[in-house]
Amino acid sequence: MRKLKITELPRITADEFKKVDKIPLVVVLDQVRSLNNIGSVFRTSDAFRIESIYLCGITATPPHPEIHKTALGAEFSVDWKYFENTADAVRELQSQAVRVFAIEQVDMSVMLQDFEVQPRARYAIVFGNEVKGVDQEVVNLCNGSIEIPQFGTKHSLNVSVTAGIVIWDLFQKLNHSQPIH
């Protein structure tokens, strides 16, 4: 077994990324304060070809050296849009028939492994602030909430780790129902 060199990986350019099929998923960051977390979400979103990222409130926007440090250029490949108010982002998505789900621990949330996608539907997932989570006003606007089951003492994951888990899971489900090429 030999580790592959970066030049041996089947990578596409940022321009090619803009033209390829994406999974029907938008990531919304609600008041995420850490630039490293934002960059990490860009990188994960690039890896799984999400449609775009909506950056809301205090969430910083590219270009920024601290975002670039973890995004490693994904901030150039993944489309993004800024909203001063996360609720406005959710309303815009819903006006486009996108089903929006908060990634949050709430009563009546659906566990991630039980969440089922509908064929040909578009989705958005809202990730919240590192301390306060998704704002209650935003939770109230969402079509529902998805929760990652946790079995330890903390019941809390870093937002970039949470994004990686949820985006991977939804990539598998959405790509199965509508394969990308």
List SSEs in N-to-C order: HEHEHHEHEEEHEH
Q: Enumerate the strands of the largest sheet in spatial order, edge to edge or round the barrel.
A: 3-2-1-6-4-7-5
Average pLDDT taken over every residue? 96
Unreliable parts: none
Please give the alpha-carbon distance between the first and last residues: 28 Å
The computed structural class is alpha/beta
Helix content: 25-40%
Helix count?
7
Computed CA radius of gyration, to the nearest angstrom: 16 Å
The count of strands amounts to 7
CATH superfamily: SPOUT methyltransferase, trefoil knot domain
According to CATH, the fold-level topology is Alpha/beta knot
Strand content: 15-25%
Task: Write up what this structure looks like.
Strands 3-2-1-6-4-7-5 form a 7-stranded parallel sheet, with helices on both faces. It is globular, with a radius of gyration of 16 Å. It is 36% helix and 21% strand. The model has no long low-confidence stretch (mean pLDDT 96). The protein is α/β, with parallel strands linked by helices and 181 residues long. It has a single domain (19-148, 156-177), classed as 3-Layer(aba) Sandwich (Alpha/beta knot).
